[in-house]
Design a protein that fits this description.
By secondary structure, this protein is of the alpha+beta class. It has a single domain, classed as Glutaredoxin (3-Layer(aba) Sandwich), CATH 3.40.30. It is globular, with a radius of gyration of 17 Å. The N terminus is likely disordered.
Length: 202
């Protein structure tokens, strides 16, 4: 019984570790995913940018909807400065029909997304980043040698309910720190959002 209890604790700890966002300073995993318009987008496509804001997002989550316009605004503000946004939808469409490909295309068109909205159909990308929620933001810095490293992970700001009441714009501050040659502080915050819907293992 004691051995079983210890093994159970170890399993819980391992699962918890796997659920953690990728460590700050780590090399960001590459990806090559289908965009809602049928094109393929890879992390390497951003080799000429200073970095990328990879945001795991979805259609139905109310917190995504609360942040949606702010995430679009992040792209409009910082893409011209070298930090564009890329949305990745990690949800299994069977578990979450609102994230079917046609619904993803519909949402991107309706909101006139100025960035790609990629589909992690095989659900291999989000676990490599340690993402667990939507929205969850990973700010990547281009090291100039073919590598992107993780500079910030977490949420957009400190008030998803009311954009006018935000006191700390975490993502904006992190990008401005990088643009100034500094390290984001804080480099991690807690992502607030809906749990990612994984495929059921038969």
């Amino acid at each position: 019984m004691k051995v079983f209890f210890i093994l159970t604790l170890l399993i819980i700890n391992v699962v918890g570790l796997k659920a953690q966002p990728i460590a700050i300073g780590s090399v960001a995993p590459d990806f090559s995913l289908k965009n809602y318009d049928g094109t393929t987008v890879s992390l390497s496509d951003y080799a000429n940018e200073k970095g990328v804001m990879v945001i795991f997002s979805c259609n139905p989550c109310p917190i995504v909807k609360a942040y949606e316009d702010r995430m679009i605004a992040l792209h409009h503000e910082f893409a011209p400065q070298g930090y564009p946004v890329v949305f990745i939808n990690p949800n299994d469409a069977i578990q979450q029909p609102a994230d079917a490909v046609d619904k993803i295309k519909e949402r991107a068109t309706e909101k006139n997304y100025p960035f790609p909205y990629l589909i992690d159909a095989d659900q291999t990308v989000y676990p490599s980043y340690g993402a667990t929620r939507t929205p969850e933001l990973f700010l990547l810095k281009n090291e100039g040698d073919g590598r992107f490293t993780v500079a910030y992970t977490g949420t957009v700001d400190d008030n998803y309910q009311d954009a006018s009441a935000v006191t700390v714009p975490f993502a904006s501050n992190a990008i401005r720190a990088l643009l100034a040659g500094n390290t984001p502080d804080p480099a991690t915050t807690k992502a607030i959002g809906c749990g990612i819907k994984a495929k059921k293992i038969m």
